[in-house]
Amino acid sequence: MPGGSSDKVAATLGSQVVKLPSRRTETPHESTERRRILPALEVSLLVAAVLVPFVLQDYATIFATRVLILCLFALSFDLVWGYAGILSLGQSLFFGMAGYGVALLSRDLNIASIFVVLPVGALIGFVVALLLAGFLLLGRHPSSIVFVSLGTMTGAYAADRLAGGSSYLGGQNGIPSIQLMTVGSYELNEGSTFYYLALGILIIVYLLSRYLLRSQFGLALAGLRENEYRIGFFGYKAQHLKAVIFSISGAIAGMAGSLYAFHEGFVGTNVLGVVMSTQVVLYVLFGGSGTLVGAIVGTVVIEALSFWLSNSFQDFWPIILGVLLLLVIMFRPAGLVSLLLSERERVGTFGRPGKRGKNDAA
Amino acid sequence: MMNDGMKFSRRRFLHNFAFASAAIAVGPGSWVIRPGWANAAEGPIKLGIATDLTGALGFAGNTDANVARMVIKEINDAGGLLGRPIELYIEDTATNESVAVGNVRKLIQRDKVDLVLGGISSSMRNAIKDTIVSRGKTLYIYPEGYEGKECMPNLFCTGPVPAQNCDQFIPWLIKNGGKRFALPGSNYVWPQTISAYARKVIESNGGEVVFEEYYPMDQIDFSSTVNRIISNRVDVVFNTIVPPGVSPFFKQLYEAGFSKNGGRIGCTYFDENFLEMNQAHEIDGLASSLDYYRALMDEDPVSAKIQGEYEKQFPSQFRFSAGSAATGTYRGLKLWEAAVKEAGTVDRDAVAAALDHAKIAEGPGGPAEMVPGKHHCKMNMYIGVAKGGRYEIVARSAGLVDPKEC
């Protein structure tokens, strides 16, 4: 399991203790030293991201935009797997359905305004995830991890096949020539404007996710991940919590899918399929699941590596990449970020220290 | 036309893997192929090839890249184009549309090429055409035979389309097979489009379609289809099932005694690469309709010269064949060369205007010319019949066949 150990997290649940107790013996100095790394990492990533269009050439900025959109997608998977322990192997279902949905909006209704397209994409992802959650998660008994992972994977696979067989959706050929996304009368072409748009959305989603996960809700989710029955005994409706986070994650994936469709100007069945779902699992495992920053680091490193490797070793780059992934997952199961962050920082703190007892709900 | 169903051909995969390893061992060198000389005043003309070097369609993509190397070397050795040498940029589209869009952007935005030629499957063309043409403002040539209906400005197609495949082929099948047709196909765009066209031609020539059916791309058991074919006394199977299903289908059809009892298989895309997927006796008598066969070497000196030169430069398993888009690539590059010469510049609009009516007198399978305003190419078509693992040419078009597109 990613993240912290079950006892520590569960121990904080009954009362409103906000910090994990085991490290209280540290001197204050040590503690602040250690806790500075995560914010520093986040800020340096942000600064680097802002500088990208000034440093890189045009085509690399466009490539970076695609990576940012995939980061958003990776965040959505991290929320369900890293925090709630739901192994969704069909995350591309939400990504791809939203992509197809907005592609149809653009093709049939000629709508490309960002104010319509993004909310619609998020809504499609949300609704599809909610329906799937109703089937997979909201049973009387907690569903097993195998049931959920195979269920979501089947969903993605079925959607891939159905889209490939539907002539309305363009069959295997997909939907090409999606127009440019518009803000009012301004057309968002690929390049630095689109890059900053994607970056802005990513930052907002990142901050909202962090707020959500550091609340009591996040604490309950972490408990759920470690021991679902125990959370049930505390009086939480575990299945409902799961359905909520699953749907939120679906909405984020949907938003990423609609951005992706307009950025690439094309959707095909591969955005729905199992390959895309597996890719997002790799991003998150590689970077470090259970930390939001891990999803970002994983996506950026894998995409940058494959870009560089495919340039330098055109014939066997997938093999090098595969070996690297294996090495990290074997020797650093907590992902790349565990090289920098202590376990305490990865687990983090929950709730708001100043308002003990007031935020009772979850 | 083709699809990634081909990934299931294990033998093909092993071949490719062996050659990829060989390429690594000897070092593929730079993927930018610079000419041996330069023109200081204007610099070289940049030509981008975006094709599937890796993945399921790697066998075809590597052929196309080789054809481009051969043609460009020939042009450069003869003094270049407009006095400028041509620099070749080859990018891998990896039989994966998501990877492809990123790599094609490198050609457009980093290398700023003057032309992109490539894409093998229709889904690949659909994925990259906007990156090249509308967003990238660059000329695009698509070399593979496909289902037609691509009429985007500044996009030119140099492979055969359904009218060219069927107009002469169907009457021949009726004469040399019979009137009762079955149209089994894989369930995607190309089989559906070409079968719809074939049905029209069959019916207007007095034939009859007994059934038209589509199967999942990975289906390999066709016993019920074969039963239906035998029990309905079908004369001609006009097949659009693609790998991996096609080879078991033909085998099951053979075992049911279809060809022994006088049945005829027609399959438009079947080139020399596919012949080795079945035992030769299982597909004896199979008729195919393409713009080029290797057997043309015996009668056409131009084809013999091109085929010979290719085999001399690239004595590998990547065959110069029509289904791999090798002929479309050759034709596309030569038509573009003619257009640039006429336009006197590499400016996109001027070249597109000249390419619209470009002609070449010599190419694999004969001359070719673009049909003005139609974005497609007139070419000779041939009917080949498989015999003992080789094709014999049994019929040829009277002249250049019109694509009837756009």
End-to-end CA span of chain B? 18 Å
Runs of chain B in which pLDDT lies below 50 for 5 or more consecutive residues are 4-30
Provide the CATH top-level class of the largest domain in chain B. Alpha Beta
Overall pLDDT confidence of chain B: 88
How many discrete structural domains of chain A?
Answer: 1
Roughly what fraction of the amino acids of chain A lie in strands?
A: under 5%
Question: What's this entry about, in short?
Answer:
Chain A has 362 residues and is mainly alpha-helical. Chain A has helices at residues 6-14, 28-35, 37-55, 58-83, 91-108, 114-136, 145-165, 192-213, 216-226, 228-233, 238-264, 274-287, 292-312, 317-331, 343-347, and strands at 181-183, 186-188.
What's the topology here?
The complex is a heterodimer of chains A (362) and B (406).
Chain A: H1 6-14, H2 28-35, H3 37-55, H4 58-83, H5 91-108, H6 114-136, H7 145-165, E1 181-183, E2 186-188, H8 192-213, H9 216-226, H10 228-233, H11 238-264, H12 274-287, H13 292-312, H14 317-331, H15 343-347
Antiparallel strand pairs in A: 1-2
Chain B: H1 10-26, E1 32-33, E2 45-51, H2 58-77, E3 86-92, H3 97-110, E4 115-118, H4 122-134, E5 139-142, E6 155-157, H5 162-166, H6 169-176, E7 180-186, H7 189-204, E8 208-215, H8 223-231, E9 236-238, H9 246-255, E10 264-266, H10 272-275, E11 287-290, H11 301-313, H12 326-343, H13 348-355, E12 359-360, E13 368-370, E14 377-379, E15 382-387, E16 390-396
Parallel strand pairs in B: 2-3, 2-4, 4-5, 5-6, 7-8, 7-9, 9-10
Antiparallel strand pairs in B: 1-3, 11-15, 12-13, 13-14, 15-16
